[in-house]
Every structure is written in C-alpha cells, then in structure tokens.
Write a structure and sequence with these properties.
The chain has about 130 residues and is α+β, with helices and mostly antiparallel strands. The chain has two helices and eight strands; from the N terminus they run βββββαβαββ. A hairpin with a 4-residue loop joins strand 4 and strand 5.
C-alpha cells in the first residue's frame, strides 16, 4: 500500500508525479528544483540559494507528515555544473545534523526550467 504526500509548503508537481510517496517504511521524495512555493519562482540565481530552496522543499514535504531531515537515508543531487559541488555541499551540510545520509551527485546536461540543482531524497519512517 502506498500513501501520497502533498503540501502547499513545497511547489506543486510540474508533471504527472507526486511530491512524495510512502511505500512501507520508506518515503520517496521526488526531485525538488529550487522553486519557492510562495512565489512560484526560483529562490535565487546562484547555487547557494537554489540548493537551500531545494532542501527546504524536501524538508517541508517531510514535515507535512511529521518527519524531518533526520529521517533521510539517501539523496541524489543533480547539478548543472559539477563546479558548483563545493558551494552546494556547504549548504547541504547545514541541513543534516549528526550522521549524514548516503548520497550521489552528478553533473547533468540540463535540469527543468533551467535550474542549477535538483535534489531527491529517500527517508525512513519506520520504527
């Protein structure tokens, strides 16, 4: 059985997918680009502000169901430029206390709407 997560505190899906889906003890958060849900626009034009917004969107989706960033066990970071890895990493580290989740990071040819970063996450919600 699966449960679909949806909150107005994160941007609505821009295609035929859910913000997140819980299946068993895991929540799969769709890739979040840096759209500020209050404006519908990118939070900024630099990697720091865009990374912060993408992670804030993930945090908001998780919090809508009583979870937190501490529940995240795996992320995938997609970057328009791997040259932004260091700056992204500094912002990323601020969202995780203690043991950080497993992670992969890739440079990609392009991201939706010209974003500089997109981040997806898997969270554990079991006991």
């Amino acid at each position: 059985m699966k449960k679909v997560y949806s909150t107005s505190n994160a941007p609505a899906a821009i295609g035929p997918y859910s913000q997140a889906v819980q299946a068993g003890d895991f929540v799969y958060v769709s890739g979040q680009i840096p759209i500020d849900p209050s404006t519908g626009e990118f939070a900024g034009v630099d990697i720091v502000s865009q990374t912060r917004q993408s992670l804030t969107n993930i945090k908001s989706i998780l919090e809508s169901e009583g979870l937190s960033m501490e529940n995240v066990v795996k992320t995938t970071v997609l970057l328009q430029s791997i040259g932004d890895f260091g700056a992204m990493n500094e912002v990323y580290a601020a969202f995780f206390e203690g043991a950080c989740p497993a992670r992969a990071a890739f440079e990609v040819a392009a991201l939706p709407k010209g974003a500089l970063v997109e981040i997806e996450a898997v969270a554990y919600c079991g006991k």
